[in-house]
Amino acid sequence: MMIRRKWLSLTAGFVMVSKEASSQQAKPSAADKKSTDRTAAARARMVQRHLKEHGIKNPRVLDAFRTVPRHEFIRVEVRHLAYEDESIPIGEGQTITPPFDVAFMTEALDPQPTDKVYEVGTGSGYQAAILAQLVKDVYSVEIHKPLADGAARILKKLGYDNVKSRHGDGYEGWPDAAPFDAVIVTCAPEKVPQPLVDQLKEGGRIVIPLGDRYKQSVFIMYKKGGKLTEPKAIRPTLFVPMTGRAQREAASDSGKGAIQKKDLNDTKPK
């Protein structure tokens, strides 16, 4: 009887060890994942050809672009363009920004590991994923609900748990999460929305494209004494216009300007 119990105990132990061994064997290592990633070489080429050779130098930024799978953020039928320096339609009249422009703005933002960053314009979610590799937390708002929902699904699928995204007008910021160490805007208003200034930490920085539909530049500004410093233009660019409240304000300002011009003309001697 004792011999039988011992045999059963040994057998149970063997089964337990076997299960543990099989579960350990079934779990792929980081090296296995890398070896089965068929797009790693394409990302490496993208970084070399489109980023490094065009002046992107920050090693942390370059590593983020080697890591994030851009093809996951676009439709299957255009994935052959994923690692080209191309702007690709993603629906709702929007596009995924070319890799160089994403890298350029990310490098200008100078993301730090402890930063909390606010992004206006989630779009596909690619910029948020890049930032997620570089900072502590990312808060991102997208005005087009189908894009907001799609980006949230992809970011969750890929495990970017430090990205919080939602549908809304990015003009308003994210008051509950403020203040932010940095703000990045991936659409072009004609002027900086005041809520973004209010929600930026003292000493924080904002990278934003400003201008009308066909004449824009990326600017960087810092918050000092509760106000933004003089805008420093760092590169001409062409982003989709910022919609929502920013667009309404621009239209209102344009209308006021036209009325003032008419009033001046009416006062001229005839």
Structural shape: globular
Q: Look at the structure and give the CATH class of the domain at 86-261.
A: Alpha Beta
- Residues in helix, %: 40-55%
Q: Spans with pLDDT under 50 lasting ≥5 residues?
A: 1-35, 258-262
Class per helix and strand makeup: alpha/beta
SSE arrangement, N to C: HHHHEEHEHEHEEHEEEEH
CATH topology of the domain at 86-261: Rossmann fold
Main beta-sheet strand count, sense and barrel state: 8 strands, mixed
Radius of gyration, in Å, reads 25 Å
CATH superfamily grouping of the domain at 86-261: Vaccinia Virus protein VP39
Q: What's the CATH architecture of the domain at 86-261?
A: 3-Layer(aba) Sandwich
State the distance separating the first and last CA atoms.
122 Å
Q: Beta-strand percentage?
A: 15-25%
Mean pLDDT reading: 86
Strand tally, please?
A: 10
- The DSSP helix count reads 9
